[in-house]
Amino acid sequence: MVPLQPLLTELGSVFSSAGHRLALVGGPVRDALLGRQSPDLDFTTDARPEETIRLLRGWGDSHWDIGKAFGTIGARKGDHVVEVTTYRADVYREDSRKPQVAFGDTLEADLLRRDFTVNAMALELPELTFVDPYGGLADLTAGLLRTPGAPEISFGDDPLRMMRGARFAAQLGFSVAPEALTAMTAMADRISIVSAERVRVELEKLLLAPDPRPGLELLVSTGLAAHVLPELPALKLEIDEHHRHKDVYEHSLIVLEQAIALEDGPDGPVPGPDLVLRLAAILHDIGKPATRRFEEGGGVSFHHHEMEGAKLTTRRMKALRFDKETIQQVSRLVQLHLRFHGYGDGAWTDSAVRRYVTDAGPLLDRLHKLTRSDCTTRNRRKASRLASAYDDLELRIAELREREELDAVRPDLDGNQIMEILGIPAGRDVGRAWKFLKDLRLDRGQIGYDEAREALVAWWAGEQASAGPTADQTSGDRVGGTSDGDDPSGATPARRGGETTASA
Predict the structure, then answer these.
(1) Residue 332, class by beta-carbon neighbours within 10 Å (0-12 exposed, 13-18 middle, 19+ buried)?
(2) Sign (positive/negative) of CA torsion 334, 171, 219, 110?
(3) Minimal CA–CA distance to 478: which of 450, 440, 438?
(4) Percent helix, strand and coil across the chain, each to the nearest 5
(5) 3-state SS record for 451-468
């Protein structure tokens, strides 16, 4: 707090001179006691929003009142951004997704409505007086998440606090007090009244924590996951009588841990924490419950679970209001996570390697890490064989990159050249010809203008002779073509159609 003391004293004096109380509260106080710097500066006051605006207008370089309805006013002074919120006493109605905002009158009452005692400590300004009416410092020392009041009342007032408990378990490594854990379990269905956007934000923070596993396990064990991410507890497949397949839920948690361990530093291709990689790791097998089949002889298969998983991933992430780009990236990784399997069983052609890189596109580095993380076998020989095969694939990709522009594979002829050679106008036939040349490029590498022209003329003659589809009958293609990634069944020697337990 030492570097912030001039700011805290100055701002506190502004409010106290006007006859109001001001306190730094919540995360900044907790983090200071943990020896960490907090990115946020949150304050609480007895001043009503209109008075707070007046005081901050005179103090800061700028201010904003976008959160005025909830009592929160923001301001900036120099490099510091602060948020000041009027004492609150919010509650949710039984059938409402939005809290009823009610302003309070005392700091102690405001702290009582905080989620956990470790966030219910304050520094009153300008004197920097430590205020801890609910034993937050003792709980911080014990690594315990306990509500300031009765947990049933706390979670009833704002059900999102239950998810915050899981998030803090991941971020801080704290455990939830028994009485709070009991209340979370009994009231899990209450989370359904909270907006998807707020749930998503908490889930993101949990997944980006240093160790998400305890938080995810808490969501599952309390039943919260059944309402916010039901695909996760669904991975707890029952063991069949032959005990031939692994617990997919446990496998997914290990994959997540291994993916996190493979994240790069700030200057690497996948700097951690990476939300897309972590989401793909925890969701990559969610298609297994729907595709599980018991085979003759006692085996278990999950054919096409990567395709089903991609659909389920898209559906769940849309429900949680993730942005379109993140949804597409995570779903694509889930769809592609099996493409590597089978590489070690037989040599891939250069064409197959090109398609692998092209289909992954900008997600290739994440796909490398997801695929490596997906090996959780305890069989050291098998694990070593898979790692060696992927090492070889990455080497093949590097070698091809040296010879070709592998990350931007395009036909040897562009749309204008196609129209000139074939004597056709712009239209769908040009798109079909472009796709033919793109496939040729993937299969044979760079062949140059003359050979590409010869192949194009021969292909067009064949199309004309066999009375192939006309421009009016063909749909969806255009100059520039589409990514082969749009056709998940594109030619590749990688084994398609899912995996069996023996190779999971």
Answers:
(1) buried
(2) negative
(3) 438
(4) 55, 10, 35
(5) HHHHHHHHHHHHHHHCCC
Question: Rounded to an integer, what distance in angstroms lies between the CA atom of residue 100 and that of residue 93?
Answer: 7
Question: Are 385 and 335 a contacting pair, CB within 8 Å?
Answer: no
The first and second tokens of residue 425, run together, are: 């106008």
One DSSP character per residue, 258-325 reads: HHHHH-B-TTSSSBSS-HHHHHHHHHTTTTHHHH-EEPTTS-EE-TTHHHHHHHHHHHHHHHTT--HH
In tens digits, what is the pLDDT along the chain, a chain of 504 residues?
788 899 999 999 999 999 999 999 999 999 999 998 887 899 999 999 999 999 999 999 999 998 898 899 999 999 899 999 999 875 556 655 566 677 888 999 999 989 999 999 999 999 999 999 999 999 999 999 999 999 999 999 899 999 999 999 999 999 999 999 999 999 999 999 999 999 999 999 999 999 999 999 999 999 999 999 999 999 986 544 444 456 899 999 999 999 999 999 999 999 999 999 999 999 999 999 888 888 777 777 788 899 999 999 999 999 999 999 999 999 999 999 988 876 656 667 777 888 888 888 899 999 999 999 998 877 788 888 888 888 888 888 888 777 665 555 677 788 888 888 888 888 888 888 888 887 777 777 777 788 888 888 888 888 887 755 554 444 444 333 333 433 333 333 333 334 433 333
Q: 55 - beta bridge partners?
A: none
pTM of the prediction? 0.77
Of the CA atoms within 13 Å of residue 239, those in its CB half-sphere come to 7
Give residues with Cβ within 8 angstroms of 147, minimum separation 6. Answer: 115, 116, 117, 154, 155, 161, 177, 180
Q: Helices (H), strands (E): how many in the chain? A: 22, 13
Q: Are 353 and 395 in contact (CB under 8 A)?
A: no
| Distances, alpha carbon 66 to alpha carbons 69, 71, 73, 93, in Å | 8, 10, 7, 24
Listed residue (248, 221, 246) closest to 235, CA to CA: 248
Q: Please, is 243 exposed, middle or buried when counting C-beta atoms within 10 Å of its C-beta (0-12, 13-18, 19+)?
A: exposed
Distance between alpha carbon 181 and the CA centroid of its chain, in Å? 26
